[in-house]
């Protein structure tokens, strides 16, 4: 048995959204580097030590910027996979959820480095946004995969 995939004409929006996530990733690099420079944390140190962050607000904020960048890198592969799979059946929805995710990642990064909040608590605003996009894409990818494999119809047949 074979399955023929037809890429929807709107799939280009999905690809543009994937590209946008790379732009967000590239934005993180100079953003984090500016905090590194202000904190005077030399390479190859990934972070300032806990003791250093207690004595220096700049080193603390660098760690926050670095952590924000790392969490982006931890999430982006799964984001891209779910975006591309979900987009096969729901290209406009997937693109919209992907844009929500990208905006959420920037709000998360900016909030994490908000000097007015302790422990990077302002990042939570961004996490609420990007998790909305994540959950939408997880659902869309699941439904797309079930549809493409035919398992969705089989499961529905069992439930009758």
What does this structure look like?
The protein is mostly helical and 160 residues long. α1 (11-39) runs parallel beside α4 (91-112) and α3 runs parallel beside α5 (123-149). It has 6 helices and no strands.
Distinctive features:
160 residues; elongated; 0% strand; mainly alpha
Q: What's a quick, concise take on this entry?
A:
The protein is mainly alpha-helical. It has helices spanning 11-39, 50-55, 57-86, 91-112, 123-149, 151-159.
Helix count equals 6
- Encode the helix/strand succession as letters: HHHHHH
Q: What is the general shape? A: elongated
How many runs of DSSP E, i.e. beta strands?
Answer: 0
Q: What structural class should be given to the helix and strand makeup?
A: mainly alpha
Distance between the termini: 25 Å
Report the mean per-residue pLDDT as an integer.
91
Question: What layout of secondary structure does this protein have?
Answer:
Elements: H1 11-39, H2 50-55, H3 57-86, H4 91-112, H5 123-149, H6 151-159
Helix pairs in contact: 1-3, 1-4, 3-4, 3-5, 4-5
């Amino acid at each position: 048995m074979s399955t023929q995939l037809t890429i929807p004409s709107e799939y280009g929006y999905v690809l543009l959204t994937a590209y946008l996530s790379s732009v967000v990733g590239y934005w993180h690099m100079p953003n984090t580097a500016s905090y590194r420079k202000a904190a005077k944390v030399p390479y190859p140190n990934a972070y300032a030590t806990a003791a250093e962050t207690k004595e220096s607000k700049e080193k603390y904020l660098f760690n926050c910027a670095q952590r924000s960048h790392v969490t982006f890198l931890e999430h982006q592969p799964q984001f891209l996979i779910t975006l591309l799979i979900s987009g096969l059946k729901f290209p406009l929805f997937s693109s919209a959820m992907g844009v929500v995710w990208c905006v959420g990642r920037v709000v998360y990064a900016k909030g994490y480095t908000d000097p007015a909040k302790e422990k990077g608590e302002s990042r939570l605003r961004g996490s609420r946004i990007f998790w909305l996009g994540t959950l939408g894409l997880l659902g869309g990818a699941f439904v797309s995969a079930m549809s493409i494999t035919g398992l969705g119809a089989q499961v529905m047949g069992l439930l009758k």
